[in-house]
Specification:
- A hairpin with a 3-residue loop joins strand 7 and strand 8.
- The protein has four helices and nine strands.
- The protein is an alpha+beta fold and about 200 residues long.
- The two termini are about 25 Å apart.
- The radius of gyration is 17 Å and the shape is globular.
- The N terminus and C terminus are likely disordered.
- The strands form three sheets. A four-stranded antiparallel beta sheet has the order 3-4-6-5, covered by helices on one side. Strands 7-8-9 form a three-stranded antiparallel beta sheet, with no helix packed on it.
């Protein structure tokens, strides 16, 4: 068995452009999306407790759970998610999938509206992908920052070349966890493969 260690998102320069299933698993522990998809393609609540697609107006509206925060305790609200997605639509890795997004706004603290230029019943499913996980807008495209600020059920408490420690993020009350602390220890053998 080949032993391999790697940095979360290091191959692509972004924490959200992932390839390996093991990376996706850990990123899902650190970040949440507005919604998640079941294996049958049905949307389920995550940071948004409710959503609505208006097929006439081509809008997707998401309603956030109250009191959400990032791991650094800054508020996850409509304006911060609007700022995040307004940054994402300008990036090459997102432009093709988001080319039909005409505008993103937040008329209320807990409400985000995506206005599309055409019908897209699958847009909610698109936003359930890890690529669209909610992060602080200031963290977008900052692969040099080793301090991970997430929105998911676990937060990073230690992140070094040889160790990754995750601890349950107690502010995320709707998400049930079976464990409270998770440690990964890596033997340091190859300096070219390292945990960021």
């Amino acid at each position: 068995i080949k032993e391999e260690r790697y940095s979360i998102g290091s191959r692509t320069g972004s924490k959200h452009h992932l390839q390996r299933a093991s990376e996706r698993y850990f990123i899902r522990q650190l970040y949440c999306c507005l919604v998640k998809s079941t294996r049958h393609g049905e949307l389920e609540p995550q940071l948004a407790h409710h959503w609505h697609y208006d097929a006439v107006a081509f809008t997707w509206t998401f309603y956030l759970r109250p009191g959400l925060t990032f791991h650094n305790r800054t508020l996850i609200d409509g304006p911060s998610i609007t700022e995040l997605f307004n940054k994402l639509v300008t990036l090459d890795h997102y432009k093709n999938e988001l080319s039909h997004v005409a505008s993103i706004n937040s008329p209320a603290e807990n409400k985000i509206i995506f206005k599309l230029t055409r019908a897209d019943q699958g847009f909610g499913g698109l936003l359930s992908g890890i690529k669209y996980a909610i992060q602080p807008p200031s963290q977008v495209n900052d692969s040099s920052n080793k301090h991970i600020v997430g929105s998911g059920p676990f937060q990073v408490t230690e992140h070094s070349e040889s160790k990754l420690c995750l601890q349950a993020f107690d502010q995320l009350r709707y998400h049930q966890r079976l464990i409270h602390i998770f440690h990964l220890q890596f033997p340091v053998k190859d300096k070219n493969l390292m945990l960021m």
